[in-house]
Amino acid sequence: FDTALQTLSQLVRTENCLIFSTTVCPWCDRAAEFFASIQRPCRKIELDVPAGDPAQQMLGMALGVATQQRTVPNIFISGKHVGGFDTLLAAQKQCKDGQMPPEHLDVCGFLME
């Protein structure tokens, strides 16, 4: 489990945008399509591929513990946990409206460039 937490931490630190997903999640696909529509690269990690892989299962468990979110998509931008698809859209609206708290302006920088 500690290895999975370390992997999660490294991924969040080194990727500007991450979508933790499963292959059967339509909201995950919508999140990926959203990033494509604003021409922002976002790495998508399928937690169910390969099927039955213990390392991917542990990564999913570590993700749930770290974020207290047990659903996908589970999105990170600029090292910060955004949440799911609805919260992604809400964050974009906050950025457009100038309502994002100053400590999260790096998220706006990614979404609005």
Task: Describe the overall structure.
The chain has five helices and four strands; from the N terminus they run H-E-H-E-H-E-E-H-H. With 113 residues, the protein is an alpha+beta fold. Strands 2-1-3-4 form a four-stranded mixed sheet, sandwiched between helices. Strand 1, helix 2 (26-37) and strand 2 form a beta-alpha-beta unit. The longest helix is centred in the middle third of the chain and has 14 residues, at 54-67. The N and C termini lie far apart (36 Å).
Brief characterization of the structure:
It contains 5 helices and 4 strands; from the N terminus they run αβαβαββαα.
Which range best describes the helical content: under 10%, 10-25%, 25-40%, 40-55%, 55-70% or over 70%?
40-55%
Radius of gyration: 14 Å
Contiguous low-pLDDT stretches (5 residues minimum) are: none
Number of strands: 4
Could you give the order of the helices and strands?
Answer: HEHEHEEHH
Mean pLDDT: 96
Class of secondary structure makeup: alpha+beta
Shape label: globular
Q: Into which percentage range does the β-strand content fall?
A: 15-25%
Number of helices: 5
Q: How are the strands of the largest sheet arranged?
A: 2-1-3-4
Give the N-to-C terminal Cα separation. Answer: 36 Å
Q: What profile does the largest beta sheet have?
A: 4 strands, mixed
Features:
113 residues; 4 strands; alpha+beta
Write the layout of secondary structure elements.
Elements (H helix, E strand, L loop, with lengths): L1 H13 L2 E5 L4 H12 L5 E4 L7 H14 L6 E4 L2 E4 L1 H13 L7 H8 L1
Parallel strand pairs: 1-2
Antiparallel strand pairs: 1-3, 3-4
Helix pairs in contact: 1-3, 4-5
